[in-house]
Amino acid sequence: MNYGWAGDAERRFASSSGGVLTALGCHLLKTKKTNFILHVGPDPDMPMRSRWVMSRTAEEVQRNAGSRYGPVAPLAGLENALQREERFAIIAKPCDLGAVHRLSKVDDRVDRVCVARLTLVCGGQSRLGKSTALLNEFGVLESELTLFRYRGFGNPGRTRVETRDGSAFETTYAEFWKEEAGWDYETRCKFCPDALGEASDIAATDVWPGANPTKEDAGFNGVICRTQAGKDLLDGAVAGDDLVLGDPITPRQFDSFQPHQVRRKLALRARFQGLAQANMPMIETVGLRLDKLAEALDAHHRQEETSATIQRALAGRFSEPLRS
Length: 324
Fold this sequence. Notes:
Helices cover 36% and strands 20% of the residues. It has helices spanning 9-14, 20-30, 58-63, 78-83, 94-104, 109-113, 129-138, 173-176, 228-239, 251-257, 259-277, 290-294, 299-314; strands at 2-6, 36-43, 46-55, 88-92, 114-120, 145-149, 158-163, 168-172, 202-205, 221-225, 243-248. It has an eight-stranded mixed β-sheet. The protein has a three-stranded antiparallel β-sheet with strand order 6-7-8. A hairpin with an 8-residue loop joins strand 6 (145-149) and strand 7. The termini are far apart.
């Protein structure tokens, strides 16, 4: 585990943090270790929304770089990618890579052609409510958009909106995310057992102490390398000047960078118990140590988490109306 950032200064500046995932994707294509990257990018017709893409050049990878705070399904393109029988890498959410890992147990194409699996440490998949609220604040219709950039061009960079008539609007990252009550993300993400990407070769994360940026900086990621394939990729990217690795990062430093992930990990077993007591479906996990992690939560806080989950479930917070 190390600090890391893209070796190319422009790529580092334009990316959401340090540009590590973008740099690795570009390196894989440049060295012809892969034929394309399956990842996500803004929909050119609806820039607030995202779609899966296959990038075959470093320029295309860069064009589709950046955090996308909204619904996105990179695995909608997976069968298309597998059918090509070309070597590729995937950059996707931790839950997506968990699904890829499970698929590899029944479909031998996955391990044969998907040669690198890269992810971000995920805070949860946002719905579009937060973005829509920002457009309302600016008095802009989604149909008028030509750009919706959440971060980048600095770290964390400003959220920027551009419209067809040439107007532009910006807000800071802190202003955009200041009201936690307005963080509108999927219910399942509140019960996610693996936001850290344990099914990946490499995971990249923000590294702001306390999880809050206090100023703009040159752009840094935390890099978590999980496999030998990941280490070989990192070593090659560093040797090719596509990536710079900085100082090592300890587990306790990561606790400081990602405190919300720590809180959720420790609380998950209690939350799952709340779901069970409310007669709702639970998530089955293998190898993610939730019972061991739950031991770090005292009895009072375990009961609080369980009770709060039951209350939310009974209030209908975890369900939605059936549609005919």
